[in-house]
TrEMBL record:
SUPFAM superfamilies: PLP-dependent transferases. NCBIfam families: hisC, PRK03321.1. Keywords: Aminotransferase, Pyridoxal phosphate, Transferase. It comes from Cellulomonas soli. GO terms for biological process: L-histidine biosynthetic process. The gene is pat_2. CDD domains: AAT_like. This is Aromatic amino acid aminotransferase. It catalyses: an aromatic L-alpha-amino acid + 2-oxoglutarate = an aromatic oxo-acid + L-glutamate. Gene3D superfamilies: Aspartate Aminotransferase, domain 1 (3.90.1150.10), Type I PLP-dependent aspartate aminotransferase-like (Major domain) (3.40.640.10). It comes from the Bacteria. Its cofactor is pyridoxal 5'-phosphate. The keyword 4Fe-4S does not apply.
Amino acid sequence: MTRVPLRKALADLPPYVPGARAPIGAAAYKLSSNENPYPPLPAVVAALADAAMDVNRYPDMYATELTAAIAGSLGVGAESVVTGNGSVAVLAHVLAAVCEPGDEVVLPWRSFEAYPIAVTLAGAVGVPVPLAAGGRLDLEALAAAVTPRTRVVLVCTPNNPTGPAVHADELATFLDAVPSDVLVVLDEAYVEFVRDPQAADGLAAFAAHPNVVVLRTFSKAYGLAGLRVGYAVARPRLAAGIRAASTPFGVSSLAQHAAIVSLRSVGELMARVDAIVVERDRMLGGLRAQGWDVPDSQANFVWLPLGDQASSFAAAAGRAGVLVRPFAGDGVRVSVGEPEATDLLLEFASTARH
Ligand SMILES: *Cc1c(COP(=O)(O)O)cnc(C)c1O
């Protein structure tokens, strides 16, 4: 009997490894998925309860009200905003909209583990470019990797999992070097946590360069990871292409309502982000004071470049009550959560150091 063949590309797909979860009944801080430690605002819970009454209906396919609210908050036209089922899905739709089979997508590495998977599934070929010192993106090398076969360059800022943000001057030089028919995707999943005054402004780059698309999400700063909602900001022609490549009714009505209420509650939510930034800087400073080599972080996580020790460090941290995310042979990413979690992580790291 012959069997249904699967695409050959699937065999080589790197797995997406979700952050560890505590076993039922065990107490541990989950610092393994860059989640927001705060529960949803009461207004968000109320909006979800409201929207729950309508789940027999399809959602608004174009998320009209949410799209307008996002556009208003960013000062761009609604025709430039495309929502999706998390910005990971939006990235897949961006690639589906522009990549022909075999086109090259230049990407930094190590970076977000969803990138190689999305590129391969789009039928494109990933061209990884090593990071520079200090876990920074090497914008010069990314530009140099562009060939006539390149259709897209992915720029993750701040970079997941290492933490630094791309600087404005680096991005300006890079955008001048990249041909105008190559799409530059600025993935700003952590933009709300950035405090580096030299950091690039993705929306300014979008305004200045027609080939720039900005990706953002409600999963991290807005604390809606479980609802799956993100968006792209693109020039209207590109946005229409991304919309055409999107899953119909991709964003649930629950997610749409929760995101709209979150935009209205932005002050309250950004106060939480400020508190997470304080914890991040405390974790970073504490680890450095213990002698760990930790790159700058402008996101809600820190990176420990532990090489071969990554997996054993993460396993021991888990036993000590903090779940962190190892990247075997490379490093460990620690998300920033509750102050108690920072305390426990620093306590564990100090014993692991000796
Ligand atoms: C978390 C993350 C996203 C967002 O994922 P969602 O699908 O919106 O939850 C996108 N890019 C990077 C680099 C991330 O770390």
